[in-house]
Amino acid sequence: MTVSVHHIVVDAHDLPGLARFWADALRWRVLSEREREVVIGPDLLAPVGICFMPAEEEKRVKNRLHLDLTCTADEREAEIERLLALGARRADVGQTGEETWTVLADPEDNEFCVVRPKSTLTG
After folding, report:
1. pLDDT for the residue 123
2. How far apart are CA 76 and CA 56, in angstroms?
3. Rounded distance, CA 64 to CA 71, Å?
């Protein structure tokens, strides 16, 4: 048997709040909500979900791991605006301004990027 990714785990102070942000951002839903664990995903049978677990300490540095989100090229700016309206904010992690992605942070300052579609990477 081979291993596979089951959940991406995110430490959070406000588990339900951060889970709702990401569920709305990804157009997923909350699958399970307990006092010390909230799980979101597209549905119960999806191979991968995101699990939010309690964090004691404050976030201090740039994430070592982050999510890259994508959509069609013509929807990209509208999706960025939608994410900002949900509670994301623009984040500076040392970009030069020449990047083809946009760096945002969720309500607990976890950075993520909105990148161009893979189909635009060739050629």
Report:
1. 54
2. 35
3. 23
Find the mean pLDDT for residues 34-59. 94
List, for residues 18-35, the tens digit of each pLDDT value. 999 999 999 999 999 999
CA 40 → CA 6, 33, 45, 101, 107, distances in Å? Answer: 12, 9, 12, 25, 16
* 34 vs 114: CA distance, rounded Å: 30
Strands 29-34 and 67-70, how do they pair? Answer: unpaired
Band (pLDDT 50/70/90 cuts) for residue 115 is very high
Q: For the chain, percent helix, then strand, then coil, each to nearest 5?
A: 25, 30, 45
Residue showing tokens 């709702």: 20
Bridge partners (DSSP) listed for residue 53: 11
Give the distance, in angstroms, between the CA of residue 74 and the centroid of all CA atoms in the same chain: 20
By three-state DSSP, how is residue 77 classified? helix
